[in-house]
Structure prediction request, 832 residues.
Amino acid sequence: MNVPHTDVVVVGAGVVGLSVAWRAARRGYTVTVADPAPGSGASHAAAGMLAPVSEVTYTEEPLLRLGLASLARWPAFAAELSGEAGVEVDYRTEGTLDVAFGSDDLAALGELADFMEKLALPVDRLTGRECRRAEPMLAPSVRGGVLASGDAWVDPRRVTAALLAALSRQGVTLVTDRVRGLAVEGDVVRGVRLARGGRVSADRVVLAAGAWSGSLDGVPPEVLPPVRPVKGQIMRLRGDPGFLGRCVRGVVHGSHVYMVPRGDGEIVLGATQEEMGFDTRVTAGGLWELLRDARELVPGVTELEVTDVFAGLRPGTPDNLPLIGRTALEGLLLATGHHRGGVLLCPLTADFIAGELAGEPAQDLGGAAAGPPVAAICSPLRFGPGRAISDPHRWKKEERGPSPGLRPGSPAPEAR
Amino acid sequence: MNVPHTDVVVVGAGVVGLSVAWRAARRGYTVTVADPAPGSGASHAAAGMLAPVSEVTYTEEPLLRLGLASLARWPAFAAELSGEAGVEVDYRTEGTLDVAFGSDDLAALGELADFMEKLALPVDRLTGRECRRAEPMLAPSVRGGVLASGDAWVDPRRVTAALLAALSRQGVTLVTDRVRGLAVEGDVVRGVRLARGGRVSADRVVLAAGAWSGSLDGVPPEVLPPVRPVKGQIMRLRGDPGFLGRCVRGVVHGSHVYMVPRGDGEIVLGATQEEMGFDTRVTAGGLWELLRDARELVPGVTELEVTDVFAGLRPGTPDNLPLIGRTALEGLLLATGHHRGGVLLCPLTADFIAGELAGEPAQDLGGAAAGPPVAAICSPLRFGPGRAISDPHRWKKEERGPSPGLRPGSPAPEAR
Prediction:
């Protein structure tokens, strides 16, 4: 199969790759997206929590800043996307309720709330009774909770469907084949080679293949993104609409469990985190763990119908931060390594990559908050030779000028 | 849809209905089978244990006798069926190992073994160590067990597939429509009426619709079989062949759990027993119960892939015995109410119904063992007017002569 030359080829049709393709196409670039099974990977497994506040952890403030910056873009992103695609994405803003059971749990959650308040995050502390008043299906043994009312959520399967519809309207070419490797000429990327033969030639390649982003042929080792698959098993249940009014989370037996309600009564119950390589088997042990923990959090879950069980692979990175931006290989950009945050971070990622394609100066998309700019936090160059990933000031070294921009609709050079 | 007149129409294409149709067709009768979704009900859910010995209970010796009589027919039934259909049914004879955990469980299992020995059933008592030597995947906490080496098992989905292939060879007509009701003229059944319109006219109707057998229009209330749906949820897992060498069973938290291995590494894990009406939802609680109990029995089950989850409806009866034979309505026979024993009892049921169709004297298909004949144990007439089901001698009242036989290939009377 030979596809006409385009400005950009995006490898991977999950929410990140599709969002990048959409934003690039809206800027006037011609775009091809290649994926053997669009929307079938981590995006199909994902619950869709947009919850940077309730998921904050002590050592990961850069990730929090990224999450908040992307969450701020979600309302407009969802509205534009739904408007263009004619597909609602079930964007909801009722927040996340994080609950504690034992007194140790409660103390830990209280300390986390202190930390959240220190960061000026909008959270409310609730007693056990207030938790149950907010969510009557919660277990009687809930001792207290923290409500992050700014957190939101979305249905990732609808987001994928909407993005595919929007891309179709924009005239983006979708190639349903696996990309085997990069097509490199000299030191410059010229496109990608397809598994069933043929290639897609392009001026820029955006690698957004999630957990598989490290598996392409033809990528120099020092440029190959250091992603690894982190398996997540998830269940979809069906109850009455209103079974839960917002996302609920808790730590049960030391493992995090969450339940995300949809408007149609679907409840997404997730998720395991397993280092199992490229293993997407749904296992008896995975389901057992989810069901055991969900029963503790919301006992009435046992009455719900099981409509789907699924395992996906998140693209994990060594520092839990994504890889977004230019690489040391000319023409290759990364939009991968989003781990548990692909759905949350896709508006930010897409805008950032679109800016990079145009050669715009790297902006601090995170706004006025203190700290390193997004370009530095997420730079794929941070894992390159000579870059110690433990260097807390590494971002300062990475400030750089704009790249030579790509003009939309640039004709294919004769040499290709 | 109008189907040509046949000698017999069988309502229901589960293992029982299909077996009856096969045996009737082999005797030369023209046969039609009607079912909206052949093989998709309880037969699709069933694990396929042929385990009358390990499933014996104190008050149900008639059911034991039926089971043993049908088990004795299984080797020839499986061989003939596989030969005719060209489909192997995975008939296996390595027996069932029933294990106990706590000392109370062990004492109860010891008493059951006493009872089995009193009935001259072939069982061996094993220590915990002997159990684990026989099945190394069993939990270390297993205290002892009873091996019923005469028990067998089969793959019900293969049995269904084989029966459908055999029926096709025999020229049996398969109508994939729901039977809405009986076609009765005067006091005689003349066939069935189909949901999509039209009817199938026949000299005899065999009602083998499992849990739905009590739902047909046009059946006089005193003839309507007293079956109720008993929901069973089941999981199919996949491991290495040899994960288990035989069926294992145990009582965990007061509920029975079993695991049935197939030659290809599939493990069937069953089954819940729920009185929920016509509810075939797979629920979070059902799967949780199965997984919890299976982990106690065989801890390594957590590593296995989950390949299928399913819920079926068993046709339960007031006395846990099936309904097989003539009814008070001329032309209507029952082959239903097999509850958990449909797969085990299908050879016996099919032979018995075929004999009834031919008007042969009711034989004691159970052989020389003491007790009432099969005809009396299973007679649908036992629930009719004036028949107290608690009367221990009721079978004596039901001995009767042969019915007027049906000649194979009888032409349709003009009146029809």
